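Fresh eyes needed here. Kindly weigh in on this sequence plus structure tokens:
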Amino acid sequence: LVFFIAAFVAIYVNRRYLVQLVPISMGWTAVGVLSIWEWTKSRWSEKSASAICVALSALFLIGTLPKTLAPVAKDKAHFKEAGWYVRQPQGSGNLNIMISDHRIAFYADAKAIGLHDHSSEADVAAQVKHRNADFLVAEEWALKTRFPGILLSPERNGLRLEKEFIAQGKDRVLVYRAG
């Protein structure tokens, strides 16, 4: 019954909710390792039992370590890179950035001005010209769908394309500097 519940939770629940199972699973893993050790020691010599336990441990590590060490959301790493890039010149604090995704402002440690809050390209350009935004950091698809003029001619809107971060697939985050 416990195995069924644990398997059900592992399949149907997001990974972050499994953290509570770590202490329980560590205890049961230790009990399992000790049981295997005792079982192998009772059937074979201690040297053979040690070799079998080392081989089983190595198999376990080979099977689980690659997934354990893989980053959880590497498909969104471009948001982190863009945020860190924007933060570098000025450091954190008085930085205002116009963004399409709030994760960028989080990594930049900056005040976020939501791009979706503005209805037109003229409104975005006015924010940039009044120096309310130091950077415009947005996903390419967001600019294509809502503000294609910024994508086609950033200089006309008081912006200069500084860097682009390419994600897995076709997603790109574009960093424009104001002024």
